[in-house]
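Handout, section 3.2

Students often ask what a structure token actually looks like in practice. Rather than define it abstractly, here is a full record for SEC14 and spectrin domain containing 1. The first block is the sequence as you would receive it.
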Amino acid sequence: MLNLFGFIRCEDMVDVRRLKMLQMVQLFKCEEDAAQAVEWLSELLDALLKTHIRLGDDAQETKVLLEKHRKFVDVAQSTYDYGRQLLQATVVLCQSLRCTSRSSGDTLPRLNRVWKQFTIASEERVHRLEMAIAFHSNAEKILQDCPEEPEAINDEEQFDEIEAVGKSLLDRLTVPVVYPDGTEQYFGSPSDMASTAEHIRDRMKLVNLKRQQLRHPEMVTTES
């Protein structure tokens, strides 16, 4: 009888050790996957800053870019949430195993830091796209109105608003993204910035030409 109890106790110990081994494997896997989530999020941030640069050639295209950006943010949000869930799992496993995680102590701050940087850069991207939509929409309204009805667009305030938004957008392109630690990042390269700015200036010149034509309609008659 005693031997039977001893055998059962021995089996219980084996089961406990097997469970602990399984939990250790799960812990290592969670730690590795959490670190991978940080890398994925870092790659998304890098892509945002280096490739999500264009502001669109017109209002419709800019609206499409804004919608694409929101879907891109959803992917980043899912990646961040996935990393958080893995790190929460490592805490539970460590408590069960009565051990200290090898990496979750520094992985969580890294995850939160990269996510904060991503959200700041994303908000700046959204702000620029929304400004570009306002600029293009107002410019297109001016440029596409029928010349037979100049009184419909003969409002100096409309032209002033387009010019103000255009200048603000140009200024915005030169402003870096500033993170909480004081580091700075720019969207794209100087040549990317110059290309985007050139298109905005070209649209502003067309609007200014339209203004001059409305002020001096005889110019159009003379040229024709």
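Discussion prompt for tutorial groups: The two ends are 115 Å apart (CA to CA). How would you have guessed this from the sequence alone?
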